[in-house]
Design goal:
Blueprint: H1 9-35, E1 47-48, E2 51-52, H2 53-74, H3 80-109, H4 114-133, H5 143-165, H6 185-196, E3 200-203, H7 208-217, H8 219-222, E4 227-229, H9 239-244, E5 252-255, E6 258-261, H10 266-273
Parallel strand pairs: 3-4
Antiparallel strand pairs: 1-2, 3-5, 5-6
Helix pairs in contact: 1-2, 1-4, 2-3, 3-4, 3-5, 6-10
Length: 283
């Protein structure tokens, strides 16, 4: 008769340790969502199905915490085996995604992101605690799910990388809502003046305030305005240009080296840009 292995301190406390690491990762992800000012946080390389990886990371850390502490809080022993397997699958996937982020950070963007490095360390700690924190009857039972997780996350991250590098290959982009108002002579002259001095309007295809700004110019005049699409799902997106300009809300105008957030009246744009042409605006 085989002797049962003794329960060690690690085995007794591993779920609490995993729960604590997951809580730290959750707080880190929330901090990235709130701040989000690094090149990586605003990059197309870290967006999946319209959701940023910091948000997905927060969800993943939350689920890891639930899997770790669920059996402890409910005192339900039957949850032990499936939650351990879930912890292994989740932590393996998180290590794979963290590896992808580190590659993008150092190999593509070449800009360090301390929270991303910390998140990678926490992900590896979760995997390590999962492997040593449970008395696995047979480590071979982890081989098949581990291979499957590596393959799936590898395919997903490869797709994300390819899409970020060439979004036009995957989609034609979303066009902004059509402008139906007409333009007067003053609107057209102002738009031409703004373009002549290098003024730029930053926005997103889905933004109602951007559409309101375009409506003030009218259909004919806005064709002259230099417009930069900030959302990667729009037509000809330039998110890096938006980050470089410090755009934090839509629309944002850049005029003579200064930025102005929000919808601007045509009179305000005329004053800010030094426009001295006709100002009998009809919109």
């Amino acid at each position: 008769m085989a002797r049962r292995k003794p329960t060690t301190w690690m085995h007794r406390n591993s779920r609490y340790l995993i729960g604590g690491a997951a809580a730290a990762g959750l707080m880190l992800s929330i901090g990235c969502l709130a701040k989000g000012n690094s090149a990586l946080s605003g990059s197309a390389y870290v967006t999946l199905a319209g959701l940023s990886l910091p948000l997905l990371g927060a969800i993943a850390y939350g689920l890891m915490g639930i899997l770790a502490l669920g059996p402890v809080l409910t005192k339900n022993k039957s949850l032990e085996p499936p939650t351990w397997l879930g912890l292994f699958i989740g932590s393996t996937a998180m290590v794979m995604v963290s590896s992808y982020l580190l590659y993008v950070m150092f190999g593509v963007l070449r800009e360090p992101c301390v929270p991303c490095v910390l998140s990678a360390v926490i992900s590896m700690a979760l995997l390590g605690l999962t492997l040593v924190g449970n008395r696995w009857e047979d480590m071979g039972q982890l081989l098949l799910p581990g291979i499957c997780v590596v393959m799936v996350t590898g395919l997903v991250t490869t797709g994300m990388f390819a899409y970020a590098g060439n979004p036009d290959t995957f989609a034609t982009g979303n066009a902004p809502q059509a402008v139906t108002t007409e333009s007067g002579e003053a609107e057209i002259a102002l738009a031409q003046h703004l373009t002549a001095i290098g003024a730029t309007k930053y926005g997103a295809w889905w933004c109602p305030h951007c559409h309101a700004q375009q409506t003030l110019f009218g259909q004919q005049a806005f064709d002259y305005v230099t417009y930069v699409e900030c959302d990667i799902e729009g037509i000809d997106p330039q998110p890096q240009a938006c980050r470089a300009a410090g755009v934090e809300s839509y629309p944002t105008w850049e005029i003579n080296g200064e930025t102005y957030a929000g919808v601007q009246s045509l009179e305000s744009l005329a004053e800010l840009s030094g426009y001295s042409g006709p100002q009998e605006f009809i919109n």
